[in-house]
Write a structure and sequence with these properties.
CATH class of one domain: Mainly Beta
Largest sheet: 5 strands, mixed, barrel
Distance between the termini: 64 Å
Helix content: 40-55%
Strand content: 5-15%
CATH architecture of one domain: Beta Barrel
Length: 442
């Protein structure tokens, strides 16, 4: 994924430098080393101008090669190198673009700050556009890219504030370039698997430009790759990237959903989607992640699962709030065997299924006293013949999966339930047997 600003960054930086750097390119001036001796010969000047005005890139490169061969020590060499950079970049020959940008920057103070910074922007842009992670020298390339971006930040820091500009305006003017170079550092560190370094860089980039959706995406990836992962920070950064409509935001959403699932492992897709949607809603135009925001982890849910019974689940759901939320995240999708139920109501439908509204409690006394159901058990009569003989007030045991629930009044919807065959009424059942809570050992 490329930075959204990658094609316009050069123009932004040029405008910024017009505010902070004075002076014209040397080739536009009649420079001299002193008042009597020209800094370059007329032959040098004419050769350079001919190359600069050549409209065809291939012919221009040849003229620059000829100039370099004839005048290797010319004082115009910084501008020759700049023209190399621009021409190779125009041709999309990115390795050559990087090579000549490095040569230009290596001249140090012989090149003014504007040209060095512009060369570094072009270099970093070309690198990310063309980088091949499978190259044998990829680590060395990445180290050089990081060093180039760090040099760009140092040059920005060293710029002098113009007298007619306030400190705040001057600092704000530099932020797009700071964002750009921090992005470049983060990209290199991310490829090098220095996830702490990349997270620090992308955090600095988002501080400089809170609208940089790609930097937020890469910050999220870096946080999630750290050991141990900074899961909450990573989730939040990815949500920010989606809110900012970073390129590929649909894919980022899919990636974020998968990361939340891996972190939590809830058994119900609708709960996973609900948490994702809640996160995306909270992240809209909020800024930093609220300290109170949290998504329960697998370890958190396992603690609940280890002590959960159908009775504790019912009590937690009835209590509502965070208690209900954590408990349901832990058990949704889980199967419970031999759940006791007393029939409060039943209804058959044309498809041949029978829907039993049942009450599950911790004792027969509690279940006998119940008038409202807390569970819905729907079974196909063809799958379990005889279930249509159940009457209101009858008891049975069933095994089912927790699918969803209505909070008020509380009603659990059981999936794929199967009634214990021993509890299904026979043609000649014992009087009163169905009205008692079945013994698990009967």
């Amino acid at each position: 994924m490329k930075r959204a600003c990658i094609l316009t960054m050069g123009a932004v930086l040029t405008m910024m430098l017009q505010v902070t750097v004075s002076g014209q390119p040397a080739y536009a001036q009649d420079q001299t080393t002193d008042q009597s001796k020209p800094a370059y010969t007329m032959a040098e000047y004419n050769a350079f101008e001919a190359a600069r005005q050549e409209p065809k890139p291939d012919a221009r490169i040849k003229q620059l090669d000829d100039f370099t061969a004839k005048f290797p020590n010319s004082t115009l060499m910084p501008y020759v190198l700049q023209l190399y950079v621009d021409t190779y970049n125009q041709q999309k020959d990115f390795p050559k673009t990087i090579q000549y940008a490095d040569k230009l920057v290596a001249l140090g103070d012989k090149v003014n700050a504007q040209n060095r910074l512009q060369a570094l922007v072009t270099r970093c842009t070309a690198f990310e556009t063309s980088f091949n992670p499978k190259a044998t020298d990829a680590p060395d390339q990445l180290a050089k890219e990081r060093a180039a971006a760090q040099q760009g930040l140092k040059l920005l820091d060293a710029l002098q504030k113009p007298d007619n500009t306030s400190v705040q305006d001057f600092n704000n003017t530099k932020k797009p370039a700071q964002d750009f170079f921090q992005d470049a550092i983060g990209f290199a560190d991310l490829q090098l698997k220095d996830f702490k370094g990349s997270a620090d860089a992308f955090k600095a980039a988002t501080d400089a430009n809170p609208k940089d959706g790609v930097a937020f995406y890469r910050l999220g990836v870096s946080d999630l790759q750290e050991k141990p992962p900074l899961s909450m920070d990573g989730f939040w950064a990815l949500a920010e990237a989606i809110d900012l409509k970073a390129p590929g935001d649909a894919q980022i959403r899919t990636y974020l959903r998968g990361q939340i699932f891996a972190y939590q492992g809830t058994g119900c897709d609708d709960l996973l989607d609900a948490q994702l949607n809640e996160l995306l809603t909270l992240a809209q135009n909020v800024g930093p992640r609220p300290a109170t925001y949290n998504i329960p982890s697998t370890a958190d849910l396992d603690k609940v699962r280890q002590t959960s019974t159908i009775i504790t689940v019912l009590n937690d759901l009835k209590a509502g709030g965070d208690k209900a939320k954590i408990s349901w995240l832990a058990v949704c999708g889980a199967q419970f065997p031999d759940v006791p139920g007393r029939i409060i109501d039943k209804a058959a439908d044309p498809s041949g299924s029978v829907a039993f509204k049942v009450y599950t409690g911790s004792s027969q006394e509690e279940m006998d006293a119940a008038t409202d159901p807390n569970g819905l058990v729907t079974v196909a009569a063809s799958a379990q013949p005889g279930i249509e003989k159940f009457e209101k007030g009858d008891y049975f045991r069933f095994t089912g999966t927790l699918l969803t629930y209505d909070p008020s009044p509380l009603l659990i919807h059981w999936g794929t339930p199967k009634i214990n065959a021993e509890d299904i009424p026979q043609e000649k059942s014992e009087p009163g047997k169905k009205k008692k809570l079945p013994n698990k050992n009967q």
